[in-house]
Every structure is written in C-alpha cells, then in structure tokens.
C-alpha cells in the first residue's frame, strides 16, 4: 500500500509523458511561428496521392499552428488534463497515420514531416511513427486522479 499523495513509478511516467506530449506540441507550434515554413512536404504528399483535397490541405496549413499552440498551452497548464491527454493521443496517432499514408509503405525511407518547422531533418517514417505511438499510447491510460499533479491543480491549491 502506498502513502497518500505518492505516485507509483508508472503513474510518474504517465504524468511525464503527458507533459512531454504537451511540450512537444507547443514547441512544434512555436518553431513554426519563428521559422515560417512553406507548406509541409507531408501535406503536399497527401495532396499528390489524392488522399486530401487541396482545400483541406490549405485549411490544415492555415490552422495547424494556432491549434498546436492553443492545445499545447492548455495541456501544459493541465486544464481538463484527462480529456487533453486523449486529445493529445488522438493528434499524435492521427499524425502517425498521415505519415504512414504519405510513406506509401516505404517506412525506412526518410520523410520530411515538418513537425518542428523548417529546421528539422528528414527522418525515416518508421522512426516518426514509433515515436508518436510511444508518446500517444500511454496518454490513453491517463486517469482522473493524475489530474491532481498538473499545474492547474497546483496553482488552485496554492
């Protein structure tokens, strides 16, 4: 039996994963604001493969950065942490699916995802997919009692 207020090792990992996912999303948005990248190659690939129509590609390009900044900030603060954990997991898994579709099964070939603005290098698609899945899956197990370890709850109790 553990003492009240103490987290088990796996619960600490879940909280750390939550903050990692939120921070990565926020940093990705900030780097895109500073670097002002062109239309990402991932979106262009999805358009060229006729997976996404051009209007959807433009809408994603226009709203991706504000959405990343807003969701990353809210998640980092910890408001509605359990719901934000599920939303972050959905974003990471959706992005992994987009990478898998754009790679057309050639998972060992490098792909430029545009995650962190114009400065990031091409990485094998399999590495990007595994990274995103490893971040996303633990977020699905983020439970309600872990919300007490977010910044939102810490500021509320101070």
Structure explained in plain terms:
Helix 2 packs antiparallel against helix 3, helix 2 packs across helix 4 and helix 4 (81-103) packs antiparallel against helix 5 (125-139). This protein has 6 helices and 2 strands; from the N terminus they run ααααββαα. The protein has one domain. The chain is 66% helix and 3% strand. The chain has helices spanning 9-35, 41-48, 54-77, 81-103, 125-139, 151-157; strands at residues 110-111, 123-124. A two-stranded antiparallel sheet has the order 1-2. With 158 residues, the chain is mainly α. The mean pLDDT is 87.
Write down the secondary-structure element order. HHHHEEHH
**What Rg, in angstroms, do the CA atoms define?**
17 Å
- Give the biggest beta sheet: 2 strands, antiparallel
| End-to-end CA span | 28 Å
Sequence of strands across the biggest β-sheet: 1-2
Name the overall outline: globular
Q: Helix count, per DSSP?
A: 6
Please describe the topology of this protein:
Blueprint: H1 9-35, H2 41-48, H3 54-77, H4 81-103, E1 110-111, E2 123-124, H5 125-139, H6 151-157
Antiparallel strand pairs: 1-2
Helix pairs in contact: 1-3, 1-5, 2-3, 2-4, 3-4, 4-5
Keywords:
158 residues, two-stranded antiparallel sheet, 66% helix
Short description:
The protein is mostly helical. The chain contains six helices and two strands, in the order ααααββαα.
């Amino acid at each position: 039996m553990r003492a009240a207020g103490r987290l088990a090792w796996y619960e600490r990992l879940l909280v750390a994963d939550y903050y990692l996912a939120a921070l990565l999303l926020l940093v990705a948005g900030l780097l895109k604001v500073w670097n002002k990248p062109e239309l990402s190659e991932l979106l262009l690939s999805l358009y060229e493969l006729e997976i996404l129509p051009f209007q959807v590609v433009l809408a994603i390009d226009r709203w991706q950065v504000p959405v990343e900044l807003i969701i990353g900030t809210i998640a980092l603060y910890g408001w509605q942490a359990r719901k934000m954990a599920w939303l972050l997991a959905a974003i990471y898994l959706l992005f992994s699916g987009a990478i898998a579709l754009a790679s057309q099964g050639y998972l060992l070939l490098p792909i430029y995802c545009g995650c962190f603005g114009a400065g990031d290098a091409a990485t094998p698609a399999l590495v990007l997919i595994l990274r995103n899945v490893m971040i996303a899956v633990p977020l699905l197990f983020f439970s309600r009692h872990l919300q007490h370890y977010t910044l939102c709850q810490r500021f509320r109790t101070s």
